[in-house]
Structures are given as structure tokens and as C-alpha cells.
Specification:
The protein is α/β, with parallel strands linked by helices and 238 residues long. The protein is built from eight helices and nine strands. It has a nine-stranded mixed sheet, sandwiched between helices. α6 runs antiparallel to α7.
Length: 238
């Protein structure tokens, strides 16, 4: 049995991560790749929760900016996360990974309602639990939902999957000399307004001392290396 630095983790996937090279929607190749990365840590015995965004299908904040009511737009965004959750569940189960989708908005025909005790039992029994529909409330992002669910299920770390290697001291696409920040405090992220996650999510993580690790999802094997104790990308903690 491989030694694990983290026995129970929460993985935050953006909806955009599932697009691959497409402009919108779900890339079959990308979702299979993500499922493969999850499979590798599942085989190690890691207990895995996943929160998926919905930006590849619909983004509530963007819709509200051109006149749609924010509450209605956010509810549509929550439904988009459920579509992604079901797609990820299908990809995982095709690789023989037992999964359950739980949603913060009741839709009993397609997924379980979010019930904390039931989610904990699933994790204890080795099932991957995918949390859809954010927190179930408008005005809260899926980043905040990920921190909230991580706290509720007692995950030891939140792993934020991105398309860059971590946090930089400048925009690496604009400044070639930008340097990767290997570790940083929550307060410094807030003070410098580094937009790796929304400020509510960072504040909630800070209040509850939940460590966050920002890593590049497209670098194969990063998840496995992280759960085995390597610091990949940027660690945000006290």
C-alpha cells in the first residue's frame, strides 16, 4: 500500500477544464483524461470528492452582466454543473470507478440529494462523490461550494485543478519573466487579489484552515504525486 499524504481530498474542476480545445461543451477526450487521472488516485485508496463548475455550458455571472436576473442566471449555471457531473460520473464508471452524484438542488430522477451523512458513508465505502449544483444558492460560486463541501466531509486538502502550473507573481502570458509562487498565505492571496479562486472561497478556507493546492490538470500524474506528498504548483495555507 502506497503511503498517502492525504487520505481524503476534494478536487475542484472548472467547467472549462472539460472543454479541452473546444470553445464550449464537453470534450470526450478531455473528460476521459480527467477520469483517468481520478482513477489513478482512486486505485491508491484515496477518498475523493469532486466539485465541478459549469462555465463550459453556462456562466451565471456572465449572463447577469448583459441583463439577465442574477438569481435566474445562477440557477441555470447550477444546472450546467449537474450536466458536467453526470458526464464525469459516466466517464468514471466506464473505468470501473464507483461514483455517486449528489446535488444541492433536488432532482431525484437523475441524482441523489445532497445529504452529508450519506456523502460520508459513500466516501468511507470507497465511492467517488461528485457534488453538483454548487451550494444550491445564487451568488455563490462553485469555488465556494468546493471549500464548503471540503469542510463538511472533513477533506484534508482542496485540490484546485487549473490550466496553469499554479500562482505566479505576474500574468505569465503577459510577463515571460513571471515566477511561480510555490507557497503563499491566504491573507496574501486576499491582499494581492490573486484571482485563483473567488475571495469568499479563500476567506472560508482561511477561517477553517483548509489548505488549498493549485496545480496544472493537463500535466499527467500531478494528482497522484500530490496525494503521495509532493508539493505541485502552489500551496495556499497559513
Amino acid at each position: 500500500m502506497t503511503d498517502l499524504a492525504y487520505k481524503r481530498v476534494m478536487v475542484k474542476l472548472s467547467g472549462e477544464a472539460l472543454m479541452g480545445s473546444q470553445q464550449f461543451g464537453i470534450s470526450p477526450e478531455m473528460i476521459q483524461y480527467v477520469a483517468g487521472e481520478i482513477l489513478e488516485i482512486y486505485k491508491l485508496g484515496v477518498e475523493i470528492g469532486i466539485v465541478v463548475g459549469g462555465g463550459n455550458i453556462f456562466r451565471g455571472i456572465a449572463a447577469s452582466s448583459y441583463g439577465m436576473d442574477r438569481t435566474a442566471a445562477d440557477h441555470m449555471g447550477m444546472l450546467a454543473t449537474v450536466i458536467n457531473s453526470l458526464a464525469l460520473q459516466d466517464a468514471l464508471e466506464k473505468q470501473d470507478v464507483q461514483t455517486r452524484v449528489q446535488t444541492a438542488i433536488g432532482m431525484h430522477e437523475v441524482a441523489e440529494p445532497y445529504i452529508l451523512r450519506r456523502a460520508l458513508r459513500h466516501l468511507e465505502r470507497g465511492r467517488v462523490v461528485i457534488f453538483g449544483a454548487g451550494t444550491g444558492n445564487p451568488y455563490f460560486t462553485t469555488d465556494t461550494a468546493a471549500v464548503l463541501r471540503a469542510q463538511e466531509v472533513h477533506a484534508t486538502i482542496l485540490l484546485k485543478a487549473t490550466k496553469v502550473d499554479g500562482l505566479y507573481d505576474a500574468d505569465p502570458q503577459v510577463s515571460p519573466e513571471a515566477s511561480l509562487i510555490p507557497s503563499i498565505s491566504y491573507m496574501e492571496v486576499l491582499e494581492r487579489q490573486l484571482r485563483v479562486m473567488d475571495m469568499t472561497a479563500i476567506s472560508l478556507a482561511m477561517d477553517n484552515k483548509l489548505p488549498l493546492m493549485v496545480f496544472n490538470l493537463k500535466k499527467q500524474g500531478c494528482l497522484q504525486r500530490i496525494v503521495q506528498g509532493e508539493v505541485i504548483g502552489t500551496l495556499i495555507s497559513n
